[in-house]
Design goal:
Strand order of the largest sheet: 4-3-5-7-6
Structural class: mainly alpha
Mean pLDDT: 89
Oligomer: single chain
Number of strands: 7
Helix content: 55-70%
Number of helices: 20
Low-confidence stretches: none
Length: 461
């Protein structure tokens, strides 16, 4: 997504325009593909329209964790802040349409295209790749059975898996090199609070295991009744009416839902939401079939289902209204000015000492390397927390004026601006400005509007 924005900037668009335009195009693609996915699953255009509304406005606003509400609105939690998820989910919906059609037709070209698209997903969105591979693996027995009944053989499976493996393997091996033991861990209950309760139960004896299993089941049932709300009822009614092929196709997503309640895919438990969001999408596609229970003589049922649909979306509407009102500034005009200067006046491969803000202009806008990025992202990508805190301690010492560490790390440039002052305030230390006035070691390159950029002199390094 950032690559597309970079191309648009090179073509003359502003930074704002280069970000907004791909967002709009991929959002439209995602919603259009979701509409057709729901339509193909149910055979009803009405289900595509209502399902889209349910998906967009499902979930809850932030700030309700103390009440046990963790399932946020998908647009707020993933699609808006994580632009690559829009790309990954749009491709996934296209793949789901192909796989669903292949269940009925077993046409080789649909399987070939589906396998090729899945193989591209590691380059785009890792969680989408995980979901699609799981769905495909669960559907293979169905494909094999249909192939056997129709006189086919393993070639259909080879057709879908060969391009997948060829395209995905290089990137998967690259990703695997950064995965630590904190990925794919047993973590019952999804949230820290639920896990604490479940692991605190008596699992030491057979009667204890039986009783604890029942307690854990009731706990999670209450948790998801609260977090899924009325959508759970609509989904249950819809599953009774959906055709059998769609019910079979929904099964992998239901299995993934259960697995994500017991396995933590990344160090931060909330990242499992990126798995749950696919269960939510397929559930929202099937839930509109609850209206099939309504006929002219059951007005009470019609009113009840309409109330449930409203109840499933009202908190999402509130979340969207809050997002519209919110005016969050990512980069100021001063940030953009210093980033523009850096792009034209510093070495592309130069190493910067900066604060650890996730949106620091040195990396986000100027494209330069720095000693350490945002701690939360480093941790959630699997880097050892002890190593992270060690490097952060060294950064603090360098800002205090530790010249030997600056030399040891091979620092080329030092940034001291609003992000570094916030970094110092958050970590309770003071930047030693006088340490960087030593002209035998540092040259002041930029000094404007609260920003100072120093070059570490070559003879000192």
């Amino acid at each position: 997504m950032d690559f597309y924005s970079a191309i648009l900037m090179k073509g003359g668009l502003t930074l704002r325009g280069s970000i907004i335009l791909p967002n709009i195009l991929f959002q439209l693609s995602l919603l259009g593909l979701f509409y057709f996915l729901a339509y193909r699953l149910t055979g009803l255009r009405m289900a595509g329209a209502i399902g889209s509304i349910l998906f967009i406005f499902a979930g809850f606003p932030p700030g309700l964790q103390t009440a046990g509400i963790h399932f946020l609105n998908p647009v707020y939690a993933v699609l808006m802040p994580q632009r690559t998820a829009m790309f990954g989910m749009a491709l996934s919906f296209a793949i789901f349409i192909l796989l669903f059609e292949a269940l009925s037709t077993l046409r080789w070209h649909e399987l070939l295209i589906a396998g090729s698209l899945i193989g591209m997903l590691p380059y785009i969105h890792a969680h989408s790749f995980i979901v699609n591979c799981f769905v495909l693996l669960m559907l293979v027995p169905v494909i094999l059975k249909k192939g056997f009944d129709n006189g086919h053989n393993m070639k259909r499976v080879i057709i879908v898996f060969l391009p997948l493996v060829v395209l995905a393997l290089p990137q998967v091996l690259c990703i695997k090199s950064g995965v630590t033991e904190r990925f794919f861990n047993f973590f019952p209950g999804w949230t820290d609070a639920n896990r604490g309760i479940i692991t605190g139960l008596d699992w030491s004896t057979i009667p204890g295991v039986v009783h604890s299993t029942a307690e854990a089941f009731v706990l999670m049932l209450n948790f998801w009744a609260k977090n899924s709300g009325a959508l759970f009822i609509l989904l249950s009614l819809g599953l009774f009416k959906v055709r059998n092929t769609a019910r079979i196709f929904y099964l992998p997503f239901l299995c993934l839902f259960f697995i994500a309640n017991f396995v933590k895919f990344q160090p931060w438990y909330f990242d499992n939401y990126k798995i749950f969001i696919y269960w939510l999408a397929l559930s929202a596609a099937i839930a509109p079939l609850s209206l099939s229970w309504v006929n002219g003589r059951k007005r009470g049922m019609a009113v009840s289902i309409c109330v449930l649909i409203v109840a499933s979306t009202v908190f999402g509407v509130i979340t969207h209204a809050e997002m519209v009102k919110d005016e969050y500034m990512v980069w100021s005009s001063d940030d953009r000015a210093v980033a523009c200067w850096l792009r034209h006046n510093t070495l592309p491969g130069g190493l910067f000492l900066t604060g650890s803000a996730h949106n620091h202009p040195v990396t986000a806008l100027a494209g330069r390397q720095r000693v350490m990025g945002y701690e939360g992202w480093l941790w959630s990508h699997g880097l050892n927390w002890t190593r992270i805190t060690g490097v952060k301690h060294d950064e603090i010492e360098m800002f205090k004026g530790n010249h030997s560490l600056i030399k040891e790390y091979g620092i080329d440039y030092i940034s001291i601006g609003p992000y570094e002052r916030s970094f110092a305030a958050d970590n309770h230390f003071k930047i030693n400005y006088k340490a960087f006035d030593d002209r035998t070691r540092f040259r002041l390159l930029y000094d404007d509007k609260g920003w100072k950029i120093y070059e570490v002199l070559y003879n000192y390094r």
